[in-house]
Amino acid sequence: MCYDDNARPPVPSNATGHSHGEDVVLTAADGNRFAAYIAIPDKPQAAQVIIYPDIRGLHQFYKELALRFAEAGIQAIAFDYFGRTAGLTTRDDSFEFMPHVQQLHLATLFADVQATLNYLKQTPHGKLPIFTVGFCLGGSLSFLSGTQNFGWAGVIGFYAGLSRNMDNQGTVIERASEIKYPVLGLFGGADQGIPAEQVHQLEQKLEETGVKHQIITYAGAPHSFFDRRSAEFANASTDAWKRIFTFIHTNSSK
Fold first, then answer.
1. DSSP code of 42?
2. Domain coordinates in residue numbering, the chain
3. pLDDT at 253
4. Among 7, 98, 114, 236, which has the minimal tally of Cβ within 10 Å of its Cβ?
5. φ, ψ for residue 133, nearest 5 deg
6. What pairing do the DSSP bridges indicate for beta strands 213-218 and 19-27?
């Protein structure tokens, strides 16, 4: 599990604006109804993001993360993975997520991504470039969605599982050559579940295909280092925010 109910995203230095957030229910093309949370900035800037949560789905960490993006001028929406199997129930620490994770499929998950994308495009700021940012399982899904024709401006992943093989369609490493959009990957050097060798393999694959990319490893940082409570990794979190905003700015200015 990446984040418990007490985890909170670090606050970026440029989160100086105001925002408001609201829970929404979206509907995919196959009729699946799923929860999402949108955060709208008072002064929108150059982009939007779709947030892919960790293995627990849409819990409080990701709602607050959406607000932090919006306070920096970036409209953000986080969505839940488990509408088909768990409905619209809450995703707090009591939620038994693993049975639902085991029932995830890329095709239906991408249908939910498309519904989220469609919703964003219908908002007043919907024409702005759209990026994805994911954590753990969500990091993997962020990168895998980069193999599809969603039209992203870029894909971002924190500690993305690189050996996860959903539906036997290939791991992130195996499918890296299919990614169509700029990539920003952020990893912890002390992450027990993601060996440095795998991170290097990902980087090599992206080098070979020529897709624009930046892969960063923070020495000594564990999985889930991006947490306001982790004071010893505050510098890594600050740098991660800076790299995200630079990546978004660079790839929005086309």
1. S
2. 19-252
3. 72
4. 98
5. -140, 125
6. unpaired
- What is d(CA 156, CA 32) in angstroms, rounded to the nearest whole number? 26
Q: What is the pLDDT of residue 8?
A: 95
* Residues of the chain with confidence (pLDDT) below 70: 1, 254
| The token pair that represents 230 in the structure block | 């982790």
How far apart CA 190 and CA 89 sit, in angstroms, is 34
Among residues 242, 245, 239, the alpha carbon closest in space to that of 188 is found at: 239
C-alpha to C-alpha distances, 132 to 10, 12, 52, 82, 209, nearest whole angstrom: 18, 18, 7, 19, 20
Distance CA 172, CA 137 (A): 11
**Which structure tokens are listed for 222?**
């564990």
Structure tokens at 102: 């085991």
What is the DSSP secondary-structure string of 197-227? HHHHHHHHHHHHHT--EEEEEETT--TT---
Contact (CB, 8 A) for 127 and 153 = no
19-252 falls under which CATH superfamily? Alpha/Beta hydrolase fold, catalytic domain (3.40.50.1820)
CA–CA separation, 60 and 58 (whole Å): 7
Which is nearest to 160 in space by CA: 181, 182, 183? 183
- Residue labelled with tokens 């889930």: 224
